[in-house]
Amino acid sequence: MARHLQKEIERLKKKILALGAVVEENLRQAFAAIESRDAEAARHVILADAVVDENEVEVEEECLKILALYQPVAVDLRYIVAVIKINNDLERIGDLGVNVAERAVQLTQTEPITVPAKLLAMAERVESMLERALDALVRSDPALARLVLAADDEVDELYPLLIDELKAEIRAHLDRLDALVLLFAVARYLERLADHTTNIAEDVLYMTEGEITRHQTPAALPTVEGDQIGG
Asked: What digits encode the pLDDT tens for the residues 5-63?
């Protein structure tokens, strides 16, 4: 029975990683569409969300089947629980990627505007966080997961600076209000994307170490020296 359980877990691992790959690519395309004003690419992301939703349901059903048939314990149980939670966060990241893509389409219908460097920097950090969180899942690597938690602080620091910059732009250029409001929305989506990606990293820590890090203060979290996201 243990051998069958491990085969099912391996199948599940492939499914959750495939879902992660689709979500990661959709998010990358959505961010690129904001900068390039590519409505066609943005619409592709919106349509591709159906694949994300289908895969999310399949992963959840697989997890429930394993729990019912094999009643896993210890490390295997932690893995299944973590995958259920990661699956949900990936679906939410997919939804937020669609939100970004929708704003990208709307931006093409406004006067061209330069996307603030801080927004692009936030997008780059979020992409790096998601890539590293998924790598941490693949490798069962808690050190990588902790780097994602540290990177979330960088996004949190950039967010209010970006908002202040957008407010200043609105005061100075009311004629660009429509486009700037859309960028406000994208900034908010980026902050939420970082939060969901952080959740994935926290679930990897739970999966690998049995450690629940949610609601801990940054000072209480272990640090990893010598590495930084985007460094």
From this structure: 999 999 999 999 999 999 999 999 999 999 999 999 999 999 999 999 999 999 999 99
Report the number of distinct structural domains present in the chain: 1
Cα dihedral across residues 219, 84, 32, 109: positive or negative? negative
Q: pLDDT tens, 155-185?
A: 999 999 999 999 999 999 999 999 999 999 9
pTM of the model: 0.89
**Structural domain range at position 45:** 2-220
Contact 42, 101 (CB under 8 A): yes
- CATH number, position 61: 1.20.58.220
* Residue 114 per-residue DSSP state: P
